[in-house]
């Protein structure tokens, strides 16, 4: 049996609007991300945290797609994830593994959230160009995804079927 923090994780499509993410929880989530491994310890990740009522939330919320706004706006925390894809302007990669490493940092954050009785729903359903114009990331940084973090108010509902373990090791290769 895999660890319950992994085995019970799911992406909620309903959050309890009363489920707040306090300063201590937010600190722990970011601390968990901070300790993720990265190629050459390049740490190519960045996050914008926005809780309801904070100015950053007002900046981010209008850029959600209708599909994600339905549940993400009830979450106690929205996080915009960024990767340092370029050294400066697009051209020279900061790290070949920048997006890979950001994903690991988000995985760390997600497991820490489970340990705090919070749930995470990652999503891409937002206006990337609009949000980029709004937040104006610095040179080399690009927005990748968003996370809604909060108290789940439903059970697993997304398509959750998984490929078999055997398939994971055979599918990438010719028979
Ligand atoms: C990079 C990424 C982008 C995602 N984008 C969306 C999205 O735009 N909308 C959505 O409802 N779910 C999104 N998801 C959530 C996945 O659909 C979900 O993780 C998958 O269906 C498995 O369900 P589970 O997380 O409950 O196990 C995204 C997940 C990841 C990792």
In short:
This protein has helices spanning 4-7, 23-34, 55-60, 66-72, 98-115, 128-135, 165-170, and strands at 45-50, 77-84, 119-123, 141-150.
Q: How many discrete structural domains?
A: 1
Number of distinct helices: 7
Q: Give the CA-based shape.
A: globular
CATH architectural name: 3-Layer(aba) Sandwich
What is the N-to-C order of secondary-structure elements (H for helix, E for strand)?
HHEHHEHEHEH
What structural class do the secondary elements suggest?
A: alpha+beta
Distance between the termini: 30 Å
Helix content: 25-40%
| CATH-defined topology | NADH Oxidase
Supply the CATH class.
Answer: Alpha Beta
Q: Give the low-confidence spans.
A: none
Q: How would you state the average pLDDT, rounded?
A: 97
In what order do the strands lie side by side in the largest sheet? 1-2-4-3
* Bound molecule types: flavin mononucleotide
Biggest sheet overview: 4 strands, antiparallel
- Based on CA atoms alone, the radius of gyration comes out at 17 Å
Percent of residues in beta strands? 15-25%
Strand tally, please?
4
CATH evolutionary superfamily: NADH Oxidase
């Amino acid at each position: 049996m895999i660890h319950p923090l992994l085995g019970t994780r799911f992406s909620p499509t309903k959050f309890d609007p009363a489920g707040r993410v306090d300063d201590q929880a937010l600190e722990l989530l970011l601390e968990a991300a901070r300790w993720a491994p990265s190629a050459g310890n390049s740490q190519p990740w960045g996050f914008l945290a926005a809780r309801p009522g904070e100015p950053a939330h007002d900046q981010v919320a209008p850029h959600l797609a209708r599909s994600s706004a339905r549940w993400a706006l009830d979450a106690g925390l929205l996080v915009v994830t960024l990767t340092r894809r370029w050294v400066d302007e697009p051209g020279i990669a900061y790290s070949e593994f920048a997006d890979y490493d950001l994903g690991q940092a988000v995985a760390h954050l997600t497991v820490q959230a489970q340990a705090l009785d919070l749930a995470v729903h990652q999503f891409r359903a937002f206006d990337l160009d609009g949000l980029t114009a709004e937040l104006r990331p610095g040179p080399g940084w690009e927005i990748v995804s968003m996370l809604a973090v909060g108290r789940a108010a439903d059970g697993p509902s997304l398509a959750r079927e998984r490929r078999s373990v055997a398939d994971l090791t055979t599918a990438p290769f010719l028979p």
